[in-house]
């Protein structure tokens, strides 16, 4: 049985990748951060008590800021594949927590790569490594962006990802490691964090439809993104680690839409006019914006044989349907007299 070690298992991508790896017969080891409350909502449906037989998803405390803990995990798990999905992944937050983002999203990758290098040197066992690189690294570069586009990062987050990208390349070249960067363009799903714009929109659409929220406050509606479905994108991550030799890849749909277009489509699906509900709040503007990301994934598609399965229309519909259902449950609880917090999304 192959063993995979994932950082970021509690995130959007971690949950879909875990489902995929379990379906392929892997034993999946996930790194979780200690918190005063449980933070495993996205993977709870996959959890089995490790005391019972057949548990193949096993969780370990760890943190990308803790090198010695990562080294211990390598020894304990002895993985065949490591997927580094953990990060402070919010672009706007990275402006408020620039140093922390550099530490976790940047240096964290180096800590993990060095732990793997050391483990390989001592045991002679090869570990395959996936780095969650991002289209944010292209930043201000003109579209379409692909493997041959120079990086021009526009946030502390993107700068940290560029650092991780080159550390991954350098470990491949210097130490002959099987290490790949997957440069993934935005990918979304009903499991997307609620402070990212697509989910913020679909969550609001559900609540406005059910009379739980009057308005949706957003920032730059003109930003364009190449949005795919996370479930499709984690398949590409896995495929990258199954090839004869390591290299970097770009994963995208090749279609871009503006935030405004995403919102209009989402509101249309429930029969509402987006313009009546959206207000602009400058607090959601970023000090430097990434205006237009459109992926050129042709080379990757040819090499990997990967194509996205979910269209933009299907993605928006799946997210809206999910969040209308969530809002319906919230409405039911409120009508029954329960006090539930309709959590806001602060400055993000
Ligand atoms: P999420 O924000 O949903 O998940 C991030 C994960 O990282 C969570 O499990 C989080 O744990 C974990 N994490 C945060 N800080 C640390 C830390 N100090 N040590 C260990 N783990 C930590 O991100 P996504 O699932 O959307 O993205 C996965 C990866 O892919 C990220 O690296 C992201 O930057 C990158 N990426 C994402 C894209 C997208 O469109 N989704 C596109 C390109 C790249 P916790 O639950 O405890 O907070
Ligand atoms: P992004 O995603 O920055 O592309 O990073 P996000 O959904 O946060 O922003 C996309 C675009 O929408 C604009 N926007 C808003 N964004 C947020 N969050 N909230 C708002 O109210 C709002 N209004 C407009 C933004 O300005 C931006 O232009 C995501 C993350 O998952 C990264 O980790 C990943 O690397 C990249 O995608 C690819």
Features:
two-stranded parallel sheet, single chain, Rossmann fold, binds NADPH dihydro-nicotinamide-adenine-dinucleotide phosphate, 348 residues, alpha/beta, 42% helix, 13 strands, 11 helices, lyase, globular, binds guanosine-5'-diphosphate-rhamnose, 7-stranded parallel sheet
Catalogue the unreliable spans.
none
Order of helices and strands: EHEEHEHHEHEEHEEEHEEHHEHH
Helix content: 40-55%
The CATH superfamily of one domain is NAD(P)-binding Rossmann-like Domain
Overview of this structure, please?
By secondary structure, the protein is an alpha/beta fold. The protein has a domain at about 5-190 and about 225-250: NAD(P)-binding Rossmann-like Domain (Rossmann fold, 3-Layer(aba) Sandwich). About 40% of the residues lie in helices and about 15% in strands. About 45% of the residues are buried. Bound molecules: NADPH dihydro-nicotinamide-adenine-dinucleotide phosphate and guanosine-5'-diphosphate-rhamnose. NADPH dihydro-nicotinamide-adenine-dinucleotide phosphate (NDP) binds near residues 64, 89 and 132.
């Amino acid at each position: 049985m192959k063993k995979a070690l994932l950082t970021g298992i509690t995130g959007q991508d971690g949950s879909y990748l875990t489902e995929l790896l379990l379906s392929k017969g892997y034993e999946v080891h996930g790194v979780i951060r200690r918190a005063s409350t449980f933070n495993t909502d996205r993977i709870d449906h996959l959890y089995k008590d490790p005391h019972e037989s057949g548990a193949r998803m096993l969780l370990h405390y760890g943190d990308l800021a803790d090198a010695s803990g990562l080294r211990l995990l390598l020894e304990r798990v002895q993985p065949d594949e490591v997927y580094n999905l953990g990060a402070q992944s919010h672009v706007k937050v990275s402006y408020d927590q620039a140093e922390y983002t550099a530490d976790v999203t940047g240096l964290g990758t180096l800590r993990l790569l060095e732990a793997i290098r050391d483990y390989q040197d001592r045991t002679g066992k090869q570990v395959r490594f996936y780095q969650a690189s991002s289209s944010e690294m292209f930043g201000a570069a003109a579209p379409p962006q692909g493997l041959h586009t120079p990086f021009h990062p526009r946030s502390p987050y993107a700068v940290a990802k560029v650092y991780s990208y080159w550390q991954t390349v350098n470990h491949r070249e210097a130490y002959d490691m099987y290490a790949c960067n997957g440069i993934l363009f935005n990918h979304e799903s009903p499991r997307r964090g609620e402070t990212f714009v697509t989910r913020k929109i679909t969550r609001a659409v559900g609540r406005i439809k059910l009379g739980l929220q009057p308005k949706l406050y957003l920032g730059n509606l003109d930003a364009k993104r190449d949005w795919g479905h996370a479930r499709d994108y984690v398949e590409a991550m896995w495929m990258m680690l199954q090839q004869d030799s390591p290299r970097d890849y770009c994963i995208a749909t090749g279609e871009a839409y503006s935030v405004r277009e995403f919102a209009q489509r989402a509101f249309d699906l429930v029969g509402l006019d987006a313009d009546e509900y959206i207000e602009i709040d400058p607090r959601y503007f970023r000090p430097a914006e990434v205006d237009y990301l459109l992926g050129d994934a042709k080379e990757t598609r040819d090499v990997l044989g990967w194509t996205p399965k979910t269209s933009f229309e299907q993605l928006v519909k799946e997210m809206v349907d999910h969040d209308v259902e969530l809002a319906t449950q919230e409405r039911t609880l409120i009508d029954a007299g329960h006090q539930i917090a309709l959590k806001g999304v602060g400055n993000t």
